[in-house]
TrEMBL record:
Record lineage: Eukaryota, Metazoa, Ecdysozoa, Nematoda, Chromadorea
Protein family membership: Belongs to the ERCC1/RAD10/SWI10 family.
Taxonomic source organism: Ancylostoma duodenale
Keyword Nucleus listed: yes
Keywords annotated in UniProt: DNA damage, DNA repair, DNA-binding, Nucleus
Highest rank taxon of the organism: Eukaryota
Pfam families the record matches: HHH_5 (PF14520), Rad10 (PF03834)
UniProt name for this protein: DNA repair protein rad10
Domain annotation ERCC1-like central: ranges: 20-132
Localisation per UniProt entry: Nucleus
GO MF term list: damaged DNA binding; single-stranded DNA binding
GO cellular component, one term: ERCC4-ERCC1 complex
Gene Ontology biological-process annotations: double-strand break repair; mitotic recombination; UV-damage excision repair
UniProt-listed InterPro entries: ERCC1-like_central_dom, ERCC1/RAD10/SWI10, Restrct_endonuc-II-like, RuvA_2-like
């Protein structure tokens, strides 16, 4: 169930809005900086629903230090796990976050969530906007896979992942999400740097690395 629109001045068409968990996120300063997409309050499992296949949980490390068991409950929730693309967006607002980030990274790996870090509420809002824009982009990037035998499809998928992870800092998870969002290696290779950056979890730096990598000429 969704409720009234909150930022009616923002860009975006009705029916294609970011949905925000009112019970958990009302008063979150991040919302003040969500300006490039429209959002509405909704009864959802995650904190932000960027589309039917993308859910985002938001966690500030200051809160995590006070309530260390909270995020495990959220990551393992049934309603939170109904999305194909599940993102934990973490605000690094404590000193020396390395140890706690290592624990969160391991937790996300074990529970099949993508960990994305930000260092200000403005950056958090920008990520959330990009996740929503990525979900709303041209459907040509989400073409279904052709009818190929399972073993062959797995081999092709692994080969494509191997190619993409050759780019600096691009992980196996990044590669899998790129293939899921773009539909094929060809579509990824033809995408602009800006389009690559919209892929959830990739970000502008890895997008630039991948864009340049895919355009590096082969040498004998």
């Amino acid at each position: 169930m969704t409720m009234e629109i909150s930022n009616t001045g923002a860009a975006g068409a009705a029916g294609s809005r970011l949905v925000v968990n009112r019970r958990r996120q009302e008063g979150n300063p991040v919302l003040k900086y969500v300006r490039n997409v429209r959002y509405e309050w909704g009864d959802i499992g995650t904190d932000f629903e960027c589309g039917p296949t993308c859910g985002v949980l938001y966690l500030a490390l200051k809160y995590h230090k006070l309530h260390p068991n909270y995020i495990l409950t959220r990551l393992s929730g049934k309603d939170e796990n109904k999305y194909a693309c599940r993102i934990l967006l973490v605000l690094c607002n404590v000193d020396e976050p390395r140890h706690v980030l290592r624990e969160l990274n391991l937790l996300c790996y074990r529970m099949d969530w993508t960990l994305v870090l930000c260092y200000s509420v403005e950056e958090a809002a920008e990520y959330i906007e990009n996740f929503k824009l990525a979900d709303s982009r041209d459907p040509a990037f989400k073409k279904p896979a052709a009818s190929v035998p399972v073993d062959e499809r797995t081999a092709l998928q692994n080969a494509a992942v191997g190619i993409l992870t050759g780019a600096r800092s691009v992980t196996k998870t990044d590669a899998q999400r790129l293939l899921y969002n773009f539909g094929s290696l060809k579509a990824i290779a033809e995408a602009s740097e800006e389009q690559l950056a919209l892929c959830p979890g990739l970000g502008p730096i890895r997008a630039k690395n991948l864009y340049n990598y895919l355009r590096t000429p082969f040498t004998s």
